[in-house]
Amino acid sequence: MRNILFVFLLLFANFLLAQESSPKISLSYTESTIKDVLKNIEDSTDYKFYYVDEWLGDQKVSGSYQDADLTEVLEDLFQSTILNFYVLDNEKVILTQNNIIYDELPTGFFIKSNQEQIQVTEERDVGGSQNPVFVADERLPQQRNIQTVRIGKETLDGQKRRYTLSGYVRNAKTGNPIPDLSLIIRNRKIGTVTDENGFYEISVPLGENLFETKALGIESQQKRVLIYNDGQLDFNLNESIEQLDEVVVEADKTKNVEEEITGSTTIESEETKDIPMVLGERNILSVATQLPGITNAGEGASGINVRGGKTDQNLFLLDEGVVYNPTHFFGIFQALNPFATKGVDIYKGNVPAEYGGRLSSVFDITTIDGNTEKFSGEASIGPVTGNLMLEIPIVKDKSSLVVGGRGAYSDWILRSLDEESLSNSSASFYDVVANYTHKINENNQIKATGYYSDDSFSITSDSLFGYNNRMLSVNWNHKFNEKNSGALAVSNSKYAFDIGFDGQANNDFLLGYSVEETEAKLKFKYVMNDTHTFDYGVAAKLYNVNPGFIRPTGSESIISPFEVPEDRALEGAIYLSDNITLGDKVGLSAGIRYSYYTALGPSTQRIYADGQPRNQATLIGSSEFDDNETVETYGGPEFRVSGRYSFTPDFSIKAGFNSMYQYIHTLSNTTTVSPIDTWKLSDSNIRPQRSNQFSLGLFKNFKDDLYELSIEGYYKTAEDVLDFKTGAQLLLNENIEQEVLQGEGQAYGVEFLLRKNSGKLNGWLGYTYSRSLIKFASDFAEERINGGEFFPSNYDKPHDVSLVANYKFTTRYSASLNFSYQTGRPVTYPIGQYNFNNSEYVFYSNRNEFRIPDYYRLDIGINIEGNHRIKKFAHSFWNISVYNVLGRANPYSVFFVSEGGEVKAFKSSIFAIPIPSITYNFKF
């Protein structure tokens, strides 16, 4: 009896001890983070949790419990995560990612192999039983640099022998799917192949699986994948000309260090959505101006200056077709639909040999490829614009159509301003873009793109200004065999503007201008071996320029019709480049492009006396040229050389040399770019521009490519740079060569960039010190500027600082900041007055001797994403931003007016107050 009583007391004591050591939990929480819930449990019980902060994330959870066990609470809390837990000594709770901590193993778990290593048998029946996953800490030497990825998490019941892994394989640079790529699991001797959309699905065993990708022209990537459950794993792979063994490649994280060419960068359209811009519009080109070496003349200026170059020295391509004016509203908005735009590759240093025709840079913009599986799209509604883009499958898995349209409804802003002169003003724009992609077969694919944009504005009641872009292109990509591929691109582009005047008097008129070009390019790529990859091809372009016309409008107009004769020219090129890889440390890109140019008739070329300035007094005759007759020819070799030496895998030095020809020029006598600036072809009196650029830079990544640091310097010289004489008349002028000068240019600078690529806080800090100088020297005073010495160009801004930052509070909420500072651009001031023949005159300083006030601006934004449920019609995104938070009245221009014998200075600004905006985006 006493023994029975003793046993009863012992069991009762153990029961009480268990009850004491396992307290019940009562708590309630709504939209709290997991970390906050764990802290709440710690505060109300004796439990102590051990974990890594980054594991918990920012996911919000809700729940309510009354006298619940710890296990019940934690299982609910971690249900949608990859976290598991283990309770030690009834007080300590240890969290783990993916795997479970076991304090005992099932019978027969260990099996001895011939190598005396511990392995996990895959053939045993584990139906429903615990099945621990063990991975050896000591990996083989060839596995030590391989990234480890964990899929799913262990559970105590329902485990299977095999799980399903699926995902997509994409080109890291273009985002396009990579079809027919092999995924091999080396340690299991199984594999699969991606379909034409880059999708794969494979059944893989529980535990460790060593994945390797294999495809021609694509870098091989390896991953050590630990499978705990069903899941998804995507691959982003770089193009390659060599087969890499045991090298981990993650997207483009090391591109800045490994790429051979200098001065290149890529901006993805999706990256720009978190950067605050004026009136909430995404703008790749405005983001580009926040990078070192790229700037513009200020608000209201539609051009971009790259490394001290003129605005006309940049080539803008959209799917291989030229866009002459890629902006709306004088540069405030980009004229390219951000939803239909995939991204832009910018070359400002060493330009690949396939590109030519401009001295400073190439902006190679591509549109997205449409969804071939299901109907989808994206739309936005903002304070002044609305945007819609649709992706429409035509033939499943083969072809699709992308259609995008955007329009402005901004007249209400001008009418609401407290300015009588603007009460009857109007301003609007729209643009449309469409592309059709079709995969004919494994070796042939076609993409056709059409684009049109139109702007119209009227600041006064009697004048209406308008300008438009049109572009059509067709690209056919063909794969001959495993080593050879090619592409044919045909495009037509046109830019035009017009001015309509309807006044009180009988002088109503329509004035217009247009430039059109048609181009064909044939490009080839030959992968010779792991060391050499050759790119070669030919290109030909036909220009048709209508320099301007004026016509009377209305029967009573006294305006006489007039039209400047058309200019025509043919530009062609042949190029060859070799990308050379000499081991892991040395990479070279060497190319040559021979460009040639022929000005064509019909044309009248004026002849001037040798050694004399060009004016009416020195005009001695003219030459007539018939249709398609050669007027003048120019041309020469252009060298493109760049090299990289890697001290370590994350630290390299690069150097490059670049020479370019440019045969078409803009004519403008305003400080900033205007939509009514005209383009002029080279002829017998206006020579093509030429430039040479040297660059040298250091590139370093830190903390597994989390941070990028680069310092790059450049020095550029230019010949036959075009500028205008004081008081020049450029529009509707047949003798335009009498109004312009050609001189020398030089630009140099140092660019600094520190960038953080991921994490809660990401963005970049950029600083540029640069100078841009020009010189016009002559034996004749009327052709000299500033005594024939070098002086600052209109776009010389020595100091340029940009800070772009985004902080993610959660996966749905983030805040962004954009700060810019620039030295004020040069300006010519009146510095005195004098009397001559009883008249008062103003005496001006040397050209560009002074500067307008410095420019600085701060923008802030709040970004709110909708919930991330997969099964919902549309995913939303709100952007709330304030442009120019400080209300800085940054001067757009400074001008002078003579009133009552005094010269008064005036400053005009585009945005002199903070501009708030809210934009709603949704994707379906």
Automatic annotation (TrEMBL):
<protein>
    <submittedName>
        <fullName>TonB-dependent receptor</fullName>
    </submittedName>
</protein>
<dbReference type="GO" id="GO:0009279">
    <property type="term" value="C:cell outer membrane"/>
</dbReference>
<dbReference type="InterPro" id="IPR036942">
    <property type="entry name" value="Beta-barrel_TonB_sf"/>
</dbReference>
<keyword id="KW-0675">Receptor</keyword>
<feature type="domain" description="TonB-dependent receptor plug">
    <location>
        <begin position="278"/>
        <end position="358"/>
    </location>
</feature>
<dbReference type="InterPro" id="IPR039426">
    <property type="entry name" value="TonB-dep_rcpt-like"/>
</dbReference>
<feature type="signal peptide">
    <location>
        <begin position="1"/>
        <end position="18"/>
    </location>
</feature>
<dbReference type="Pfam" id="PF07715">
    <property type="entry name" value="Plug"/>
</dbReference>
<dbReference type="GO" id="GO:0044718">
    <property type="term" value="P:siderophore transmembrane transport"/>
</dbReference>
<dbReference type="GO" id="GO:0015344">
    <property type="term" value="F:siderophore uptake transmembrane transporter activity"/>
</dbReference>
<keyword id="KW-0998">Cell outer membrane</keyword>
<dbReference type="Pfam" id="PF13715">
    <property type="entry name" value="CarbopepD_reg_2"/>
</dbReference>
<dbReference type="InterPro" id="IPR008969">
    <property type="entry name" value="CarboxyPept-like_regulatory"/>
</dbReference>
<keyword id="KW-0813">Transport</keyword>
<keyword id="KW-1134">Transmembrane beta strand</keyword>
<comment type="similarity">
    <text>Belongs to the TonB-dependent receptor family.</text>
</comment>
<keyword id="KW-0812">Transmembrane</keyword>
<dbReference type="InterPro" id="IPR012910">
    <property type="entry name" value="Plug_dom"/>
</dbReference>
<keyword id="KW-0472">Membrane</keyword>
<keyword id="KW-0732">Signal</keyword>
<dbReference type="InterPro" id="IPR037066">
    <property type="entry name" value="Plug_dom_sf"/>
</dbReference>
